[in-house]
Amino acid sequence: MNSNNFYKPLDVKDLYGEIIPTYQIAFAGDPWYEVSKCADQLQRCADGLSSLAVGTSCQLCGLCPVLPAYENKELENHFNSLGSTRPTAWYVEQSDHGVNLASVAWKAIPQDIAKEKYPDNTAITQWLIDTLGYEEIMWLDEVFANKTLKPKGNLQNFGKFVTGMANMLDTRVIAYRTIEPRMVTVSKRDFGNAARVYARQISIPDRRDFVVITLKEDEECAF
After folding, report:
1. What pLDDT does residue 3 have?
2. Predicted confidence (pLDDT) per residue in 22-63, tens digit
3. DSSP structure class, residue 86
4. What distance in Å separates the CA atoms of residue 147 and residue 109, rounded to the nearest whole number?
5. DSSP strand E in the chain: where?
6. What are the residue ranges spanned by the domains of the chain?
7. Which has fewest Cβ within 10 Å: 104, 116, 178, 209?
8. What is the CATH T-level fold of the domain 88-214, as seen in this structure?
9. Is 66 exposed, middle or buried (0-12, 13-18, 19+ CB in 10 A)?
10. CA dist., res. 2 & res. 49, Å (int)
């Protein structure tokens, strides 16, 4: 039996046991390959995360990662922190085999998003203000799927669940960053001209594409 549901932070905690493994599996795969924490003191791996399995010797630094990229308690604490520090919304798709896909979003002003998501890229702060202004928006923080359970079609409900989360958070502007090409494609597929795409290293000073979606005032989600 399949189910698609929206959750508030307190309600989604009962699903952490399935959401956390889905997160770990998703980001260990294409295009992220975030498998372990970089053991190099210079942290030459992007974002301090390596594609190597724990215990595998790195040809660049000669060290072996000893910790997974995302530890269970680390993710649990992170998700709890989101829910306790800002307006947060969750969406989860489940089947008989477990969680196929999950997404978490939260509401904040662009300056605070810049501080949290781009702490080492000061050029982004002014760019976000120029692009998004000073009002609160929905930051689509994570969308992740377990492709071992559902190899294809995980983003078929993208437009519906993004709109539903925006309704939960009472905001009409949505933004997110991504290195996943399909996350750019579905924004245009589901929102058309309401989605603006800023290409990495061309329109935005970052290694990730940036998407802004502006919903109509009366736009509602219906599954």
Report:
1. 86
2. 999 999 999 999 999 999 888 888 889 999 999 999 988 988
3. S
4. 33
5. 3-7, 36-37, 49-50, 88-95, 98-108, 137-145, 173-178, 195-198, 209-214
6. 88-214
7. 116
8. Aminopeptidase (3.40.630)
9. exposed
10. 33
